[in-house]
Amino acid sequence: MPPDAPKSPDFSARWAALRNIPPFLAMVWRAAPGLTLAMVALRLMRAVMPVAMLWIGKLIIDQVVALSGTPGPETLRDWWDSGLADTLIWLVALELGLAVAQDVLGRLVAYVDALLQEKLVIDISIRLMDHAAGLDLASFEDASFQDRLDRARRQTMGRIPLVNQVMQQLQDVVTVASFAAGLILYNPWLVVLLAVALIPSLLGEMHFNARSYALNHARAADRRERDYLRMIAATSETAKEVKIFGLSPWLRDRYLTLARRFYVENRAIQRRQLSVMAVLTALGTLAYYAAFLWIIARTLTGTLTLGDLTFLSGSFLRLRGLLEGLLSSFSSMAGQAMYLDDLFDFFTAVPAIASKPDAIPVPVPIRQGFRFEDVGFRYPGREAWAVRHMTLDLHAGETVALVGENGAGKTTIVKLLARLYDPDEGRITLDGRDLRDYDLEELRAAIGVIFQDFVRYAVTAAENIAIGRIDEREDRPRITASAERALADQVIAKLPLGYDQMVGKRFARGLDLSGGEWQKLAIARAYMRDAQLLVLDEPTAALDARAEYEVFQRFRDLTQGRIALLISHRFSSVRMADRIIVLEGGRVQDQGTHQELLSRPGRYRELFELQAQGYR
Ligand SMILES: Nc1ncnc2c1ncn2[C@@H]1O[C@H](COP(=O)(O)OP(=O)(O)OP(=O)(O)O)[C@@H](O)[C@H]1O
């Protein structure tokens, strides 16, 4: 066995997973109380049908034997007239009625089950989305969290039929109880014999289910990688690079290596299961025939009637099937319930960044501005500080530019301002109060950020802009005004359906845009937002120098009276800011106006000259 082979969770863990069933049922109940009640009622009715039908079958046979043994009417007509067969006729009619009812109930159960599962899928999906929405950005950037989320999502959706399984289980238990009651009336040992013979196969089933779960659990990361490989091997976003770099064979091999590992481990489990379970199931068959012999012997000696023989052998046959099914599905139910751990586990994750109970409202307008006071921050799981001893001000009404080389900490400052992360050292204040004192939702509403890796949504052009302030998505004048300010109106004018054109290449009716055109749409989101602090974090890299200059110029003019933060590597754009902050290695290296910074030796002048040289 390879050293990292999954260990089988022990039986107690498996039984412990059954504790998930009540909260799961509570979820089902919450999702659809009426349907749940209907389901239980239908299942209970179905549960007692088999024993009732078999018992009536026994009565019919006993009647037939009794009537055929006594001398009486010759023809069917005589039988009818004599009234001797009345009981028999009623019994047959009853049996027929039950058979019809059983069929109808079966269909109703399937119908209610389909509706119930659908409702549950919707309910759980919404709860997953709601919960994920409240979690920290740090969680989403953490790979082990991604595995957990992935398991919760996929495994839980795969567990929806569990509701049917639990209900079936309930029905079967009631059926078994009714059959067992019948058997016990004849001889209690018959039931004991059955149960004892089935226990080994129950334990076997449980063991193998636990192993399969352990394998799936341990390989969640692999599976995510496999999905990822499959995705990059065949999507519109990646097709260009995959072809040009000839990546297909490499992706394929990588996929195969991961898939084979899982296949081999899974095959080993399946093989063992095959051999062990064959032996254990044979034990159950032996017990069944032992009991059958006993019943035949008793009927031959006259202790049991022919009707009894039919009822007992019928009961026995059904009970054996039922118990076997019940035990294995109980064990598989426990196995399925283990997957619910992932779901409940996910729901226990709580965000570290949240509003305090006594959070204060964000000032409107902001009077002084934001201030970083000796702020230090490290990304979770990283040794190096992304920013350290950072002290800077963003004054109300000011346009500030952040410059610095790759990795200098520019984007990190923006994330800290929006409280996507909290600092590890020092503090950030807004009008003198710690950011953590303010209501988080209000704070985020007061800030508009367009990141360099903004999302290209596969929705209409209008909706792509409205995303900046989604509550106002019906406000077409506001959308068109934002588009004009961001120069996106020219892009939209060229689209066949204008603002209602679906963009992006994910859907057939979507029309893809150039990098710069996407950026203009994204920048329009900033105007849509109308926030007190507006940040453009390099979403202009794909614009040509003139377009970026124009975008920034407008941005500065149109954000008068607010705080505007620009991040760019182009000095031609940066120079228009009221103040430029030069970052280096996560610290403020220098700051001032363009002229001031050029007038003294330093990083800014050095970088400026480097860029200027490129244009000479
Ligand atoms: N999500 C993350 N997890 C871990 N480390 C990160 C993460 N994002 C950034 N870093 C690290 O933090 C440091 C600062 O990154 P930041 O993104 O703030 O730089 P930047 O100045 O915006 O760079 P660029 O000009 O390339 O956009 C870098 O060393 C980077 O590797």
Automatic annotation (TrEMBL):
Residue ranges of the ABC transporter domain? 370-610
Residues annotated as domain ABC transmembrane type-1: 37-335
Kindly list the GO CC terms recorded for this protein.
plasma membrane
Q: InterPro entries from the xrefs?
A: AAA+_ATPase, ABC1_TM_dom, ABC1_TM_sf, ABC_transporter-like_ATP-bd, ABC_transporter-like_CS, P-loop_NTPase, Type_1_exporter
> Keyword set for this entry?
ATP-binding, Cell membrane, Membrane, Nucleotide-binding, Transmembrane, Transmembrane helix, Transport
Alphabetically, the GO molecular function entries are:
ABC-type oligopeptide transporter activity; ATP binding; ATP hydrolysis activity
Primary residence = membrane
Q: Where are the transmembrane segments?
A: 176-203, 276-297
Q: Where in the cell is it found?
A: Cell membrane
A Pfam family that this protein carries is ABC_tran
Highest taxon of source: Bacteria
Q: How does it sit in the membrane?
A: Multi-pass membrane protein
PANTHER family according to UniProt: ATP-BINDING CASSETTE SUB-FAMILY B MEMBER 10, MITOCHONDRIAL (PTHR43394:SF1), ATP-DEPENDENT PERMEASE MDL1, MITOCHONDRIAL (PTHR43394)
Q: What is this protein called?
A: ABC transporter ATP-binding protein
Organism of origin = Paracoccus aestuarii
